[in-house]
Each structure stands twice: as structure tokens, then as C-alpha cells.
Specification:
The chain is built from twelve helices and twelve strands. The longest helix is centred in the C-terminal third of the chain and has 19 residues. Helix 11 links the parallel strand 10 and strand 11. The chain is α/β, with parallel strands linked by helices. The protein has two domains: 114 residues, Rossmann fold; 182 residues, Rossmann fold (3-Layer(aba) Sandwich), CATH 3.40.50. The structure holds glyoxylic acid (2 copies). The site of one glyoxylic acid has 7 residues, from loops.
Amino acid sequence: MVLHRPRIYVTRRLQDVVMDELMQQADITFHPEADRPVPREDLLRGVQGVDGILSMLTERIDREVFDAAGPQLKVVANMAVGYDNIDVEEARRRGVKVTNTPDVLTETTADLTFALLMAAARRLTEAERFLREGRWQTWSPTLLAGQDVYGATLGIVGMGRIGQAVARRAQGFAMRVLYHNRSRSVQTEQALGCEYKPLDELLREADFVVVLTPLTPETRGLIGRRELSLMKPSAVLVNAARGPVVDEAALVEALQNRTIWSAGLDVYEREPIAPDHPLLALDNVVLLPHIGSASIRTRLEMARMAARSAVAGALGEEPPNRVV
Ligand code: GLV
Ligand code: GLV
């Protein structure tokens, strides 16, 4: 019996070991660069006639891509936990399965989120710039003084897997943990010793507001001008979810006017941010280039997970980690 070898388009060259594993199981076409996204026209050409697409969060997988691929397309396996880059309604309508990479990145992303919180609280990147620029003259009683993390109140907006992992870290810092979520979970409250709050109350009370919701029509612009105005002048905002959950122009204004104290960002409305982005002119914000899940081990796990889903889905089997 001749087994059908599925055809899969991979939108970015993955780790060699994963590319090798993929090539043993499927006919693979891929964008050869690891550090640059596939140009749109190459993507549209590359997907023609494939059974599966293994995509990154940098690719918009929409009607145009589904049309370019053709009706034999069975699966889009996204190498990310978030999948707002995929038009899931269109996928559903066409019977194309969509998968993501949950769980494997939870702790890694929570580590980064907490690092961002601490960096923004204690001005780490600003302090390092200060030293590297040769401006360090002496120890001083007030030099680069920041906000305490230990014993502070943390407000988590979006208490999913990553939110809960951040709450567990906060226990080690004796933080009071508030959370806001679409649905309330008494079980989570008991397990993590956290309190549910309506969003406005959380914003008023928290010293640190950490955004960890998926991007959906309901969460787009969730933290806008009004919400930022409710935060304490000493408060720190951390966004490790998706840029558009926070109104970036309103955030820039709040940081410029110091109506909040600082921010730590791993995500932006548009990625990468422009070289003249107003955030770059501010000292009271820590800016990272969307590296939440970027540990060597986790990125390998994510690539393998997406590869398994792409192969299974392309073969017409039920793929692991299906979301649509
Ligand atoms: C990264 O942002 C992801 O969604 O995995
Ligand atoms: C600071 O280095 C201190 O010893 O207080």
C-alpha cells in the first residue's frame, strides 16, 4: 500500500531537528529564513495545493490564504498559544481545523511576565542604560529608586493558564493577588488564594496590573484611556498578551504624563514597532520584542507540537490541540 504523503507549507524555517522530523513524514515546502517573515506573495504561492499550513503569529491566515491554498486544505497549525492571526470563522466555515500550542509555554511565559514586572518596578533596563552610558558617578540615596514588588498588590487581567502561573510566582513575593476574568473560578481562588474583582476595582487597587487575556473582539482595547486613568500614579502596567488589548496611544500619554508610574511591554499594536515609535522616547517603560515563550526548550517543544498537529491534520486525522 502506498501511503499518501501529505503536503505541508511551513511559513518559517524551524529548528533543524524539527525540519528533519517533518520531512520524514510529509512533503514540506518552507520559507527558508528563520528571522524574517515570509513575503505575502510567497506565502500565497507556497500554500497552493497543500493539505496543511504550519504558521507563525506573524502571518495573517485569512480568506485570501484559504483561497490560495484550495479546498483540499485541512489544517492550520499555529506555532503559538494565541491564534488571533487566524480568521477562525472562515476556517470553521470551510471545515479547516486550527490548532495552537498551549501548556508547553505556560511557565516560560509566566517567567518572562514576572521578569518584565520586576524590570519595570525596579527600573532594570533604565539602570543598565545609565551604567553603559557612563553616567554612574556614585551610589546615591535616591538613584534609580523604584517600586517594591514584595508585599504589593497584583491585579491579573485574564486568569488563564499563564495568569495562574504568574499568580503562583506572586505567592513567593507575598503579594495580594486580584484577578479579573470572563468567568469567575472559585476553585482557582481557593487554590491560589486570589480574589475576583470587577475590572474597575482591580485597576483602582492594584500596584501591578498584568494583562494576559487572548485577543478577541471583547478584549480589543480593553485597557483604554478610562481604564488607565483608574490606575494609581504609582502603578505599573505589564502586557505580555497581545498589543491591541491595550490602547497604545492612551498608554503613551499615561506614561508621558506620569499618571501611571511605568510599564513593561512584550507586545504591541504593530510588531515590530517603528523606529520612531513614541514609546522609544520614554524612560519609564521596559520594551521587549515579543519573547514571552522564547526559551530554547520551549520553542523546540512548540515547534514539535505544531509539527505533530500539522502532520496529523494534513493526513485527515484529528490533530492534537485543536481549537477550531
Ligand atoms: C505568543 O505570543 C503565543 O501566542 O504563543
Ligand atoms: C546598599 O548597597 C546597601 O548596602 O544598603
